[in-house]
Amino acid sequence: MWVTLQRANIAWLVVAAVLFTLSKLLSAVRLNILFAQIGVIMPATVNRQLYWLGMFYNLFLPGGIGGDAYKIIWLKKASPTVPAIETGKAVLLDRLSGMMAAVVILLIMCTCITFLPMTIRLTAIPAVILLSFVYWLLAKKQFSLFQTACSITSLYSVGVQLLQCICVWCIMMAFGITGHIPEYMLLFLVSSLVAVLPFTLGGIGARELVFLYGSSYMHLVQDVSVTISLLFYLITALVSLAGIRYFINGRFGLKRVVGVV
């Protein structure tokens, strides 16, 4: 991995970091749209601060859900008139929306990988249609407060996942990898879903295991595959560490910056 890193093109890695940052800014906007559905009107700057602080906490808590829990706690203190169950549903739907977009893109990517069994390739698109219907039904039944925003937030989620896929592509370009792009993207999307599970701190190790065993199955170079995964984690960590400024500043004081309508 160290030998592989030494030949990386730094310019491509900088572009990858910018794209990842943009994906997170888009994620923050998506979450703020959901908050607005329950009457929590938050200034964009405060929303970004809260989102980045959550990312910072995710580095040290199991999986990618520790920061989500902090957002719910913060909003409970900042806007006590809004039930915690509603803010919890907003954060949960934000997470589900992102995972749904990842699964949809993953299934579409399956149709481009020739060595996969034909049954998987043929059923991928019908599976997308079925999952989309199930997601719509779930949103209607369990997240009725957010139903009017589901369409726009779903589009935001697709944008987030595509930006992160392009981010991974830039990491590949940093090593001059131009082949097997669908296979690497498939591994990345699967690893993104696995990283959410609370098995490891900040998801580190979970992604790398997916790339390690997945690259063996797909006949890709293992050390390069794991290096791509590790670099994505390092970019995530560096961008997330920007949230430390809000932690040092007293978590921006829990001031009355949230309006409730």
Overall description:
- The protein has 261 residues and is an all-alpha fold.
- 73% of the residues lie in helices and 2% in strands.
- The chain is built from eleven helices and two strands; from the N terminus they run ααβαααααααααβ.
- Strands 1-2 form a two-stranded antiparallel ribbon.
- The protein starts with a helix and ends with a strand.
- The model has no long low-confidence stretch (mean pLDDT 86).
Key attributes of the depicted protein:
261 residues, two-stranded antiparallel sheet
What fraction strand? under 5%
Number of domains: 1
Largest sheet data: 2 strands, antiparallel
Q: What is the terminal-to-terminal distance?
A: 53 Å
Order of helices and strands: HHEHHHHHHHHHE
Low-confidence stretches: none
Numbering strands along the chain, what is their spatial order in the largest sheet?
1-2
How many β strands by DSSP? 2
Residue share in helices? over 70%
Q: Give the overall shape.
A: globular
Count of alpha/pi helices: 11
Radius of gyration: 19 Å
- Structural class, please? mainly alpha
Concise synopsis of the structure shown:
This protein has helices at residues 2-6, 10-37, 44-58, 66-78, 84-110, 118-142, 150-174, 181-196, 206-217, 222-240, 244-248; strands spanning 40-41, 259-260. With 261 residues, it is an all-alpha fold. The mean pLDDT is 86.
